[in-house]
C-alpha cells in the first residue's frame, strides 16, 4: 500500500520555471481535477469503480460530485465488462477506474473486446509514481502502455504539475484521449494516472478551468468519379452478394438494403448480430449453406460487398474463401483493408450508410436469377427447419426454438459465446429484437457482466442466453449492487462445453469429456441464492413451457432460468439437423 514517503520537488526546481501559485498544485492534484471537468464537459458521467487505495484520489474527486454516476464493482474483470455493456447500449463512453497492480491487468479481456468490437471505454488505472516502478514497492507493476495492443491510444498523465505548461500538457492529453475514444470510430483508450501522496484529504476543486480541445466528426465521401468507376464493376457483375457482420441496429442501412434486395442480381446475407432483419434478407446463413451443399455454382458471387464487424458463421467464411470471387469490396472507415475472405480487391474507407446513400440511387436494376436461386434455398431451408424441429427430442436446439418463440418482442437479446450465438443464427427473428454478443474476441469470460451492464444502463428488459461454463466463469457478474430487476438469464446447462462435442476433433483425442467439455454437475441454484436472485428450472419441454411465462413476468429481482439438457442428445440433434437439411433437394 501507499507508504509514508514525503515527495520532494527539489530535483526539478532547476529545470522548470516554477510559478509560486502553482507549487501548491502538486498536492492538489490539478491534473485529476481537470480530468473530472473535461469528462463533465463531454457529458461522460458513468464510472465503474473498483476499490483500492492508489485510485482513492479518483474516487474522492468523482464520487463526491453528484454529476457523476459512480458504480462499485469489486472484481475488475467483471467491472470492465459491465462498463462495456453500458457503453454498448448507451453508445457513449463509460469510464472504468481501478487501483494499481494486477487490478489493472484484470481489465485486459474487456479492453480487448472493446477494441475489436469498437466500444468507447475510458480505462483509468491509478499507478505509483514512475520512480517507484520495479523498486520492490507493493502492488506495483509496469502499467505504462500495458494495453498498448488493444487500445486506440495510451496516455500517462504527469504525476507532478509545477507550471502552467505542465497543466496545459495534462489537459491536452485528456482532450486527445477523449477524442481518440470516439473518433474516427469508437474504441478503448487508456489513461494511466500516477499519483503521489497524499492520496486522501486534498482539496476536491480548483479555480483552474481546463481548455477543452474538440475534434469535428467529419465524413469521408466518395467522389462522383470514384462512384462511376465502381459502378462499372457493379454493372458488369451478374451475381452480387452483400454480407453484413456485427453492427448496431441501423435503419438507414436497412432501408438502402431493402431497396437493393429488389434487384434480382443481388442477395443480402445478414447475421443475427448484424441487427438487420427483413424478409428479403437471408438471415439464416448456416442452414442455407447446408441446403446448398457441395454444388455451389449457382450461389457463388462474382462481386462480394461486406461491412460490419465480426462474422460469426464459420460456414460462410469457408464457402467464400474457397470460391473464386473476382471483386470483393470491404466498407469500413478504419478497417477497410480487412481481408477476411481472402479476395479483397478494394477497401472503401467510409461509413457503410454513407456509401449506400451515395451509391444506391445511381444504380440501375440488374437482371438474372442469382437472388431467386438463394431465395429458393431459403424457402426450402425454412420448411426443413420446421419439419426437423417438430419431431426433435428434448435437446439444446428444442430449448432454443421454444425460447425464441416465446421471447417478448420488446426484449434486448444478449447471446453468450460458444453455441448460444450460433444456435440463434438458425432462427429467423422479428425486426424489433436488438441483439448483442461479445464477438470482438469471442470470450466466454464476460458475457453475463456485459449483459448486466447493458441492462442497467438502458433500463430495458434484457435477456442473456448463456451456456453453463460461460455462466459459471463470469459468476461475479451477479455479485454487485447494480443488477436491474429487468435482467433475465437463461443458462442452457448441458453439463459442460457442448460445442466441443459438436466440432470435429476433440472426440478423436479420447479426452473430450474431461479436457474439452469439462463435464460437471454444478447447478446455478446456489449462485442464485447467494445473490438473492429468483431461480427457475426446467428439465424437459413441458417444464420449459410452464416456466417461460413466469420467467418473463415482471419481478423485483433478476431471474435465472436454468434449462437442463442432455449433452449427448444435444450435440447429436444438432448434427442430425444439418444432415436432415443437407439431404434435401431444392
Ligand atoms: C475466455 C475464454 N476461455 C476459453 C474459451 C474457449 N471456449 C469456447 S466455447 C467454450 C465452452 C463454453 O461452454 P458453455 O458455456 O457451457 O457453452 P456450450 O458450448 O455448452 O454451448 C470454451 C471453453 C473462450 N472462448 N473464452
Ligand atoms: Mg454448456
Helix content: 25-40%
Radius of gyration: 26 Å
Please state the average pLDDT score.
94
> Strand portion, in percent?
5-15%
Number of helices: 23
- How many extended strands? 17
Largest sheet: 6 strands, parallel
Q: Assign an overall shape.
A: globular
Bound molecules: thiamine diphosphate, magnesium ion
What's the arrangement of strands in the largest beta sheet?
A: 2-1-3-4-6-5
Low-confidence stretches: 1-20
How many angstroms separate the termini? 69 Å
**What is the SS-derived class?**
alpha/beta
Describe what this molecule looks like in 3D.
With 586 residues, the protein is an alpha/beta fold. It is built from 23 helices and 17 strands. The chain has a six-stranded parallel sheet, with helices on both faces. A six-stranded parallel sheet has the order 13-12-14-15-17-16. It has a five-stranded parallel sheet with strand order 8-7-9-10-11. Helix 3 runs parallel beside helix 8 (164-182). It starts with 19 loop residues before the first helix and ends with a helix. Magnesium ion binds next to helix 18.
Kindly summarize this structure in a few lines.
This protein has 586 residues and is an alpha/beta fold.
What are its keywords?
6-stranded parallel β-sheet; 23 helices; single chain; alpha/beta; binds magnesium ion; 586 residues; binds thiamine diphosphate
Topology of this structure?
Blueprint lengths: L19 H4 L1 H4 L1 H12 L4 E4 L6 H8 L5 E4 L3 H15 L3 E5 L3 H4 L2 H10 L3 E7 L25 E4 L7 H19 L6 E6 L29 H13 L3 E5 L6 H10 L5 E5 L14 H8 L10 E5 L6 H8 L5 E5 L14 E3 L3 H8 L10 H22 L4 H11 L5 E4 L3 H6 L9 E3 L10 H12 L3 E6 H6 L13 E7 L5 H4 L9 H5 L8 H6 L3 E5 L2 H12 L6 E6 L2 H16 L4
Parallel strand pairs: 1-2, 1-3, 3-4, 4-6, 5-6, 7-8, 7-9, 9-10, 10-11, 12-13, 12-14, 14-15, 15-17, 16-17
The structure holds thiamine diphosphate (TPP) and magnesium ion.
Amino acid at each position: 500500500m501507499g507508504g509514508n514517503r514525503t515527495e520532494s520537488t527539489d530535483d526539478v526546481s532547476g529545470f522548470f520555471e516554477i510559478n509560486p501559485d502553482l507549487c501548491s498544485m502538486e498536492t492538489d492534484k490539478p491534473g485529476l481535477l481537470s480530468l473530472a471537468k473535461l469528462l463533465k464537459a463531454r457529458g461522460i458521467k458513468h464510472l465503474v469503480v473498483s476499490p483500492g487505495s492508489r485510485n482513492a484520489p479518483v474516487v474522492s474527486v468523482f464520487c463526491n460530485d453528484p454529476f457523476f454516476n459512480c458504480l462499485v464493482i469489486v472484481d475488475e474483470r467483471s467491472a470492465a465488462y459491465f462498463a462495456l455493456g453500458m457503453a454498448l447500449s448507451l453508445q457513449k463512453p463509460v469510464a472504468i477506474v481501478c487501483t494499481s497492480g494486477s487490478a489493472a491487468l484484470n481489465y485486459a479481456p474487456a479492453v480487448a473486446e472493446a477494441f475489436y468490437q469498437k466500444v468507447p471505454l475510458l480505462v483509468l488505472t491509478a499507478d505509483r509514481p514512475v520512480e517507484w516502478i520495479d523498486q520492490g514497492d507493493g502492488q506495483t507493476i509496469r502499467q505504462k502502455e500495458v494495453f498498448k495492443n488493444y487500445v486506440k491510444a495510451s496516455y500517462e498523465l504527469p504525476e507532478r504539475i509545477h507550471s502552467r505548461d505542465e497543466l496545459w500538457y495534462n489537459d491536452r492529453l485528456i482532450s486527445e484521449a477523449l477524442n481518440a475514444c470516439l473518433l474516427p470510430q469508437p474504441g478503448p483508450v487508456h489513461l494511466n494516472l500516477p499519483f503521489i501522496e497524499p492520496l486522501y484529504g486534498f482539496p476536491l476543486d480548483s479555480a483552474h478551468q481546463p481548455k477543452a480541445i474538440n475534434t469535428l466528426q467529419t465524413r469521408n465521401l466518395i467522389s462522383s468519379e470514384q462512384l462511376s468507376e465502381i459502378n462499372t464493376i457493379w454493372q458488369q457483375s451478374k451475381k452480387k452478394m452483400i454480407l453484413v457482420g456485427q453492427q448496431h441496429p441501423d435503419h438507414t442501412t436497412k432501408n438502402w438494403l431493402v431497396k437493393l434486395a429488389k434487384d434480382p442480381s443481388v442477395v443480402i446475407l445478414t447475421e443475427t448480430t448484424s441487427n438487420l432483419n427483413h424478409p428479403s434478407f437471408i438471415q439464416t446463413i448456416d442452414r442455407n449453406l447446408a441446403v446448398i451443399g457441395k454444388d455451389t455454382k449457382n450461389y457463388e458471387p462474382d462481386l462480394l460487398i461486406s461491412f460490419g464487424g465480426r462474422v460469426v458463421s464459420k460456414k460462410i467464411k469457408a464457402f467464400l474463401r474457397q470460391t473464386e470471387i473476382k471483386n470483393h469490396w470491404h466498407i469500413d472507415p478504419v478497417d477497410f483493408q480487412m481481408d477476411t475472405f481472402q479476395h479483397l480487391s478494394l477497401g472503401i474507407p467510409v461509413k457503410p450508410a454513407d456509401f449506400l446513400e451515395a451509391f444506391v440511387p445511381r444504380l440501375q436494376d440488374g437482371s438474372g436469377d442469382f437472388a431467386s436461386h438463394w431465395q429458393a434455398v431459403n424457402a426450402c431451408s425454412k420448411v426443413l427447419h420446421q419439419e426437423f424441429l417438430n419431431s426433435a427430442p428434448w435437446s439444446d436446439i428444442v430449448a432454443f426454438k421454444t425460447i425464441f418463440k416465446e421471447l417478448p418482442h420488446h426484449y434486448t437479446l444478449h447471446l453468450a459465446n460458444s453455441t448460444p450465438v450460433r444456435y440463434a443464427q438458425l432462427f429467423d427473428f422479428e425486426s424489433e429484437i436488438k441483439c448483442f454478443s461479445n464477438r470482438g474476441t469471442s470470450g466466454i469470460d464476460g458475457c453475463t457482466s456485459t449483459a448486466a451492464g447493458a441492462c442497467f444502463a438502458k433500463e430495458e428488459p434484457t435477456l442473456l442466453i448463456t451456456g453453463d461454463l460461460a455462466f459459471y466463469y463470469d459468476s461475479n457478474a451477479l455479485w454487485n449492487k447494480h443488477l436491474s430487476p429487468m435482467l433475465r438469464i437463461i443458462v442452457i446447462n448441458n453439463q459442460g462445453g457442448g460445442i466441443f462435442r459438436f466440432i470435429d476433433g476433440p472426440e478423436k483425442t479420447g479426452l473430450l469429456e474431461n479436457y474439452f467439455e469439462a463435464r460437471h454437475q454444478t447447478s446455478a441454484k446456489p449462485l442464485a441464492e447467494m445473490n438473492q436472485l429468483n431461480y427457475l428450472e426446467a428439465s424437459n419441454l413441458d417444464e420449459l413451457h410452464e416456466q417461460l411465462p413466469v420467467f418473463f413476468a415482471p419481478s423485483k429481482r433478476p431471474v435465472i432460468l436454468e434449462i437442463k439438457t442432455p449433452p449427448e442428445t444435444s450435440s447429436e440433434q444438432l448434427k442430425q439437423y444439418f444432415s436432415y437439411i443437407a439431404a434435401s433437394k431444392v
